[in-house]
Amino acid sequence: MAEREKLTIAVLSGDLERALAAFMLATTGASMGMEVSMFFTFWGLNIIKRNEGSIKSKGLMRKMLNLMNRGGSKRLKLSKFNMLGLGTWMMKRLMKDVNMPSIDEFITMAHEMGVKLIACTTTCGVMGIPPVEDTFRSEVTSLSGAAYFLNEARQSKVALFI
Amino acid sequence: MKADQSLDCIGLYCPMPIVKTAQKIKELKQGEVLEVVADDKGIKLDMPAWCQATGHEFLGVEEEDGEIRVYVKKAHEC
Hints:
With 162 residues, chain A is of the alpha/beta class. Chain A has a single domain, classed as DsrEFH-like (Hypothetical Protein Ychn, Chain: A, 3-Layer(aba) Sandwich), CATH 3.40.1260.10. Chain A has helices at 16-31, 45-48, 60-68, 86-97, 103-112, 121-127, 146-154, and strands at residues 6-11, 35-40, 116-120, 142-144, 158-161. In chain A, strand 3, helix 6 and strand 4 form a beta-alpha-beta unit. In chain A, helix 1 (16-31) runs parallel beside helix 5. The radius of gyration of chain A is 16 Å and the shape is globular. Chain A starts with 5 loop residues before the first strand and ends with a strand. With 78 residues, chain B is α+β, with helices and mostly antiparallel strands. Chain B is built from two helices and four strands; from the N terminus they run E-H-E-H-E-E. In chain B, strands 1-2-4-3 form a four-stranded mixed β-sheet, with helices on one face. Chain B has one domain: 2-Layer Sandwich (Translation Initiation Factor IF3), CATH 3.30.110. In chain B, helix 1 links the parallel strand 1 (5-9) and strand 2. At the A-B interface, helix 1 of A face helix 1 and helix 2 of B.
């Protein structure tokens, strides 16, 4: 086959349904032979934070932010009908009923398919998320800024912002 | 339609049948036919689209009692 087409997805949202859509497109793109990169920024960073342990940040406001906004694939919520977690719980149940992979499983699957997961260093800085290995899951391949994303997007056949 | 291998995707929704097809097709030899059995109607448009993107040959759809069978011929090594 000729040079592989590229798919680049910027994930700004940390909402469960948007994360799901992003990973569905990423894994489908990889299945279609595309070279896929996912660039996580702002609330989207929550998707790729480790589920266990705490996030160690400096300064009172950033410490508070990371306490209240702990993140991790298992803590994502629906943007609507969360209802103190009941709606999200129900949606996860329904997803399981129809054999839909969880976000956790999607991340593993995407990684195994060669999807690149990239964390944005600028938002890490703003939000006091230490851009080090023990903040993010092991599937996260690299850290970068806007220029890397734009350069990938520029060469991509499809670039999405979620 | 006769197939060399079959992939059961009953009860799976998008994107899983496509993800599994992409993995399964690697096990086939060039020219062999893969049958994918599914019950998510989305596959009727998704599989031809996947074939168009990957260069494999879409041979057709058969549908009976809500069970959809799609056939793909492996056109090249992948």
